[in-house]
Amino acid sequence: DIFVTPAKVFARRAKSGGGMAFLVVCVALAAVIYSGKNVMEPIMDAQMAKGMAAAQKANPNLTSDQLQAGIAFQKKLAPVLMIIGAPLAVLGVTLLLWAVGKVFGAAITFGSSVMIASYAYVPRILSGVVTDVQGLLMDDTSRLTNPTQLSIGPARFFDPDTTGAVMLAIMTRLDLVTI
Looking at residue 94, what is its pLDDT? Predict the structure, then answer.
């Protein structure tokens, strides 16, 4: 129903709080992030290597041991931040929705804002599943260097190393899930 008739879903749930929807969406997002760890690892490695090269260029005194320690720390911290970041993003959208609703005089409760924001993140869960499936079906994921290479939109067809950051960001906004 959330994809076909979202207004009906919101109308049915208008009086209920969004706690259960929030919990389910956060658990599902965490599961998708965790299950896609192996698919996203080559991309994360490539992004970290690019960042470390830029750091070494900016600070030539960095040793390879320091760089390796930085990469090891990022590899441990990134999954934790992504799993914590998902609920924080939903809460951020909740607060924004609630505040804007209040500014314009909407009769919206915080609980209904949580519910709307949670349901709005359901397509991200499906996007994560599609991304994971794509990665699992690929013969060689070692060539992946950017998340746009797994997008469901025009960004997929642009080389992330030669395409400008602004153009790549615009093409990312045209992703099927984002639209």
Answer: 94
Q: Which residues contact 160 (CB under 8 A, 6 or more apart)?
A: 145, 146, 148, 149, 168
What is the per-residue pLDDT across 140-163, written as a single tens digit (0 to 9) for each? 777 778 888 888 888 888 888 888
Residue type, 153: G
First to last CA, the chain: 18
In our burial notation (b when 16+ CB lie closer than 10 A, e otherwise), range 93-117 reads bbeebbeebeeeeeebeebbbbbbb
